[in-house]
Design brief:
With 243 residues, this protein is an alpha/beta fold. Helices cover 37% and strands 10% of the residues. The protein contains eight helices and six strands; from the N terminus they run ααββααβαβαββαα. Strands 1-3-2-4-6-5 form a six-stranded mixed beta sheet. The longest helix has 17 residues. The structure holds iron/sulfur cluster. Iron/sulfur cluster binds next to helix 2 and helix 5.
Amino acid sequence: MPSSSDALALLCERVIMCNRCQRLREYCVRVGEVKKAAYSEESYWARPVPGFGDPHARLLVIGLAPAAHGANRTGRVFTGDGPSGSSAFLMRAMHAHGFASQPTSEGKNDGLTLTDAYITMAVRCAPPENKPTPAEIACCHEHLVSEFAALPSVEVIVCLGKVAYDVAWRLIGSRGVRVSPRPVFEHGAIHQTPGSWTVIASYHPSRQNTNTGRLTPAMLSDVFRKAQTICQTASPPGGACKA
Ligand code: SF4
């Protein structure tokens, strides 16, 4: 049986080669050709973006999708969308609670490492206007299921936004755990599932939310404080699979 690292490496190769969603693939390539003025000298990744982090993570963070000029440019999730973008906002909160080695996420070679945490997304190709269709979310779900299987230590799932929240419940359902009725999405809410995973809901750290104060640094920090507390009271990193 392959180790978590091997399984994740194989999955990474599969994700990068994935071409199932024609609309998204065309959009990512087009963005990489047109570029943003500030990045006109750079080569965009413009391919599906795999997850990133610690193969023994007890914390799984699920976002929405790569940003057109962020992860679609850099090739790493929540990376490179500027000092006021979602990646910096997220990394400051994760760093404050020991999950990230630094409070910034600018490029693949910036030295960032994650400890006890793994970040992934509902959809791995940047969608126009940050809006994947239900069909695209469904199409990409198989990659998330494979990733979850390769991360046997996960105990806590932080969902960044309603799409990630819905995807997380579907993911848990894929392990045979049925929760009915499904709890409504509410920022900061914590749900313990019968399968022993803990789901924490958060608003997504998009500029739309952070610039308007709907999601403040303190609010997101509190989400990761809760995740840290639950991880610390659960089994040590690399503990047994809950399935
Ligand atoms: S969104 Fe997911 S399923 Fe669709 S092409 Fe990208 S990686 Fe493949």
